[in-house]
Structure formats: structure tokens, C-alpha cells
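Structure in, sequence out. Go:
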């Protein structure tokens, strides 16, 4: 994925005489406290509940227990989807991002590794103390989805103490541990959050506020590109015969659409929390209003697209909603990458955000 490359200056070109410049440190602090920390806290709670539900399934197998574990998976995926577009900071340490979700996996590396572990009952893969040393494709949501929803997963409701369930519990525990570690790292008052929110000449990562805000803007610009070009277009073809339903993320668990909706909902939460709209002149506030409307419309368009991806793609009405989602993400890319960037002068100076 291309990394956002926008040049800022430190000039304070206030767009309206009545409007004060907004310190970049305030924008970043608001993003951290208003969205990032609470969202990672929510993810950690959901992941912990997922781990408990899989452990309960292993101890007392039943259809109800399997359903509960699958529901826990869906809730954890939703929590993850809301923060997964923030691809910097603590999630980048120790390969955590890839360990949480190895995707795209066009060559099916993760699937083959999980299937091999199940076939051979690999003891290391089902060992909580050793899983962190296994392939990243074995450690996160992709692997757990196959355990809970893949071929022969229905047997989890029948037999106690099976290798498959043990493997699932270990992977779920790994997801919970990583989620908790990232949450704690963001809450560390001397950790990455402090570095990002306090740019300056002595800061080796963010030498000024412009660099700090560039990181934030990259979440929106690069994130929308990834959602549209990798997630959506990875399975939605230009016409039905070019569709690739099994290239859709979470197709086994029928969570593809819910994840796409949560991606936009997460961007919406981050946008509101950062209060970037306050840095706009009154005449340009329409940009922020349009962003809010489009984010909500995009999420609503796909939120209720339940059922197998293949069925969604062959239903013309539901397929149109996926097409509309793609149109919305393109519109949002223009709003963030052209309109908002242009209003702030991102190629010549971030006019409403000072460098303090």
C-alpha cells in the first residue's frame, strides 16, 4: 500500500480572521483520547470475551456453545475492523498487525498452514507459549475463522477436548493478548501516544506538528484506498463473471459486509474525535459535513448485507449496494485527499494547524 506523502509547512495561514489556528498537538491528543484509546479498549474487551467463549466451547461442547463462540468472533472482528486502518504505533511493533490479521493472503498461505496443523495436530501450534513463534498467518483472525467456520467446524459442537478446539482457544488467546498489549501501549503515558502528541525538534519520530498531522491524515487517505481497492475490489468484479467471492475477507463467517461497515464507522469515529472540522473556515465546513454524511451512508449501505457473499453478489439489489459502497469510498477519497487537503494546503502548508 502506498504511504501518504504530503508536504506541510509550519505557516499559520488562518482561513478566517475570526478563527484561531488549531494546534496540531490538540488535534492528535483529541484523536488519541477521543477515539483510539477507547476503541482499543473496546477491542481488548471483545477479544477477552472471545477467548472465554472458545474456552467454554472446548470444556462443554454443544451447538449453543459453538454459536456463542462464533458470535464472539463476529463481535471481536467488528472491534478490530474499527481500528485496523490505524496501521502505525504500537500495532506495528513485534509484527502485531500481521499477527492479528494476515491479509490479503492471495496464495492461501494461512489456509494451508492451518489445515496442515489440524491434519497433523501440530503440538506447537496449539501451545500458548509457542504460538507467537509460529507463522503470523497462524496467529490471528484468519486462522481462527477457519477453526470456527471452516470445513468440519460443526464437529466442535460434538466432541470435548479435540485438537481443533484447543488450537482455536490458543489462537483466540493470542488475539486477546495482542489486543491487550496494544491497548496498554496506547495508554502508557510515556509511550507512543506521548511521542505522537508532542512533536518537536527533539522528537525523533515527529519533528513538528505537520509530520504528526500527516500521520493522522494518512489513516483516512490510505485507509479508504485499502478498503476500496483491496477489500472490496478484491472480490467484487467489474461484472458478475469476474467476481471472486472466496477472495472476500471473512467469507466463511459471513462477516465481510459487517467488517466493511465497521471500517467506515471507525474512520467516522476518528474524524469526529480529532475535531478536524474545527480547523476549517466557516465557508469550508461543508467538507466536514459531506464527509460525515458519506461515511454514514457507506456504512449503512453494507451493514445489513447478511448471508453468504456468493448470494449477495448474485442478488442485483444487494450487489448494487456494494457498488454504491465503492462509489462512496471514492467520493470520500476525493473529500479527504483533494478537498480537505486542499483547504488545509497540504501541498504548500497546513494552514489551520500550527506546528507547536
Amino acid at each position: 500500500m502506498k504511504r501518504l506523502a504530503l508536504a506541510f509547512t509550519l505557516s499559520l495561514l488562518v482561513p478566517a480572521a475570526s478563527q484561531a489556528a488549531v494546534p496540531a498537538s490538540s488535534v492528535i491528543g483529541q484523536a488519541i483520547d477521543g477515539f483510539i484509546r477507547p476503541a482499543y479498549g473496546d477491542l481488548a474487551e471483545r477479544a477477552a470475551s472471545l477467548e472465554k467463549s472458545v474456552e467454554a466451547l472446548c470444556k462443554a461442547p454443544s451447538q449453543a456453545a459453538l454459536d456463542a463462540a462464533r458470535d464472539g468472533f463476529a463481535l471481536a472482528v467488528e472491534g478490530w475492523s474499527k481500528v485496523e486502518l490505524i496501521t502505525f504505533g504500537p500495532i506495528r511493533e513485534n509484527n502485531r498487525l500481521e499477527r492479528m490479521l494476515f491479509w490479503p493472503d492471495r496464495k492461501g498461505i494461512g489456509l494451508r498452514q492451518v489445515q496442515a496443523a489440524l491434519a497433523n495436530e501440530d503440538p506447537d501450534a496449539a501451545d500458548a507459549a509457542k504460538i507467537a513463534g509460529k507463522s503470523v498467518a497462524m496467529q490471528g483472525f484468519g486462522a481462527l475463522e477457519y477453526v470456527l467456520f471452516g470445513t468440519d467446524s460443526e464437529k466442535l459442537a460434538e466432541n470435548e477436548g479435540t485438537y481443533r478446539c484447543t488450537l482455536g482457544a490458543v489462537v483466540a488467546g493470542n488475539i486477546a493478548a495482542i489486543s491487550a498489549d496494544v491497548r496498554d501501549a496506547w495508554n502508557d503515558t510515556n509511550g507512543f501516544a506521548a511521542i505522537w502528541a508532542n512533536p518537536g525538534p527533539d522528537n525523533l519520530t515527529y519533528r513538528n506538528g505537520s509530520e504528526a498531522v500527516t500521520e493522522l491524515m494518512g489513516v483516512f487517505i490510505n485507509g479508504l484506498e485499502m478498503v476500496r481497492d483491496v477489500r472490496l475490489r478484491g472480490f467484487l468484479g467489474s461484472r458478475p463473471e469476474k467476481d471472486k467471492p472466496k477472495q472476500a475477507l471473512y467469507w466463511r463467517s459471513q462477516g465481510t459486509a459487517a467488517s466493511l461497515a465497521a471500517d467506515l464507522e471507525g474512520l467516522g469515529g476518528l474524524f469526529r474525535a480529532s475535531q478536524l472540522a474545527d480547523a476549517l473556515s466557516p465557508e469550508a465546513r461543508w467538507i466536514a459535513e459531506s464527509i460525515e454524511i458519506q461515511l454514514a451512508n457507506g456504512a449503512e449501505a453494507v451493514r445489513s448485507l447478511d448471508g453468504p457473499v456468493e448470494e449477495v453478489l448474485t442478488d442485483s439489489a444487494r450487489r448494487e449496494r456494494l457498488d454504491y459502497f465503492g462509489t462512496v469510498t471514492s467520493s470520500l477519497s476525493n473529500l479527504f485527499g483533494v478537498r480537505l487537503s486542499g483547504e488545509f494546503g497540504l501541498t504548500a502548508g497546513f494552514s489551520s494547524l500550527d506546528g507547536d
